[in-house]
Amino acid sequence: MKNIIKITLAGATLAIWFLSGCSTPGESIRPAEKVSYAAEIPENKYYFYTEAQLAEQKGMPDRAIYYLKKAVEQDPDSLLLKRELALLYARQKDNQQALAVIDDVLAKEPHDVEALIILGKIKQTQKEMDQATQAYEKVIAVDKTRQNIYLLLGGIYLQEDRTDDSLRVFQELVKQYPASYPGHFFLGKIYASQGHALRAEKEFKKALEIEPSLLEPRFELINLYKSQGKSKSVVRIYEEILKKNPQNVRAALELGLIYTSHGKKKQAQKIFSDLGKRSAHDFDVILKVIQNYLEPDRYQDAIIITEGMLQGSPDSSDLHHLAGVAYNGSKKNDKAMIHFHKVKPESRFYRDAVVHIAFLYQEQDKIDQAITFLKTAIKNNPDNPDFMYYLGTFYEEKEEYGKAEKVLKQAIEIEPEETKYYFRLGVVYDKWGKKDTSMKTMRTVIQLDPKHANALNYLGYTYADLGRNLDEAEQLIKRALKYKPNDGYITDSLGWVYYKKGRYEEALLTLKKAAELVPDDPIILEHLGDAYLKTSDKKNALKFYQLSLQKDRKDKGTLKEKIKELKDQR
């Protein structure tokens, strides 16, 4: 039942007031006993207390703490002064000092409600929820008028999936405060999660009876009625929401889909068309579609919505982009391509549309068309280095390495600190046979980003493959594994270094792990076969060579020779 219950009710503010006074970032707190602010001050707790209040108002927390400590010295039995001092410490994030003061208060008065609240909040900020709930439980046991503590306590129990405890707390809350709409709302959420539909419905309706303007209980009722197949009730509530708030995008979108499913195409089209017109000046409409419908299980709904909205705004680049994404996600790539092509260069989504089109061409094995298209996109956006980057990858795929180098260098000129352009250029040099230039480029990547795991691995593996600088190669790859500890390819690189160093048992263990992480990579499988061969396990060596041969790879000649040699030795 993890994360079933989510606390979202607008207006149910569960924060305690004393945490509002936070210190500025980086502000240091000096020991108050070392601070001297006046040569002569009267020995009077009221004076110290007043000075502390003034100092806090002026943003001088050190001085405020100093004066409050002096006030406590004058009246060590004052619980009020100690609570104020604890609050000051808490606001300065000095929880250790705050807890020390609160412990002193509670030692003298175990049922001091204000001290218990402070203790609970500190423990809550420290993520020590058991101690926080213990403090809050004591509060409501002593003082049943603390409405916000019921909400805090019940909220923690909900987040901790302690449903029975949260149910008890919210039941007690509405018993003490029958007009607490947050209490009734959360009871409804709990009952719904437990499958008690009638009880949940009653509580949500009670929350609405107390506060008719609330939307969240209405949406919860909709979810409840949907689970029960009560479509008429669902429609009624959506219509009710839109009557109260015609601008509610969420309700409008869902109601339009319901009308569509019920064959009420005119009503649905009216809603979607109006939303399409509105989206031209209200980006929240677009965001709601992105947030709620651009997911695999809702792509079809997204298609219905965006096609309907385009009736109201047929030239909207935003809507064409969303439609393209939905069609692409639904594997209807011809229609996706049509919509992506209608996204204008000035659109915020133009870059994404261009990338989609280029890779759709690639999926269709139309690399030349992808290249032509990207060249046009670069003319429209000559300062966009990402278009140059993707163009470079397509040249790389065609093995036109000189053209790839040229366009990637253009991207680097525009963004000289962007590591991905250098990394791709290094890969191009490697495929081009320019190993030294490739390694130099990878060093540039590492210089720009010392934690770039892929560049560390690439450089280390290249050294290993060449049989050069093996100690440095090992260190580079181990650094890469610090940042990507479960990466099969980097693990393979480490195993290959061990192999090149003649540490075959270590190589075998490491390469086994790499093959577990990436079971279908032909190079890893061949490396594992090599390691088995070096440890005199010819049977397993042959097994993994054959597995490697079954994978789609270009360089099968050497592998076939290894297999033939082993078979001839039988």
Describe it for me?
- With 570 residues, the chain is mainly α.
- Among the domains are: 246-350, Serine Threonine Protein Phosphatase 5, Tetratricopeptide repeat, CATH 1.25.40; 484-570, Tetratricopeptide repeat domain (Serine Threonine Protein Phosphatase 5, Tetratricopeptide repeat, Alpha Horseshoe), CATH 1.25.40.10.
- 72% of the residues lie in helices and 0% in strands.
- The protein is built from 31 helices and no strands.
- The chain has helices spanning 45-57, 61-74, 79-91, 95-108, 113-125, 129-142, 147-159, 163-176, 181-193, 197-210, 216-227, 231-244, 249-261, 265-279, 283-293, 299-312, 317-329, 333-341, 350-363, 367-380, 385-397, 401-414, 419-431, 435-448, 453-466, 470-483, 488-500, 504-517, 522-534, 538-550, 557-568.
- The two termini are 59 Å apart.
Strand content: under 5%
**Rg over CA atoms:** 33 Å
Instruction: Tell me the CATH architecture of one domain.
Output: Alpha Horseshoe
Fraction of residues in helices? over 70%
Poorly predicted regions are 1-39
In total, the number of strands is 0
According to CATH, the fold-level topology of one domain is Serine Threonine Protein Phosphatase 5, Tetratricopeptide repeat
Total number of helices: 31
Question: How widely separated are the two ends?
Answer: 59 Å
Structural class: mainly alpha
| Major beta-sheet overview | none
- Highest-level CATH class of one domain: Mainly Alpha
Shape: extended
Mean pLDDT: 89
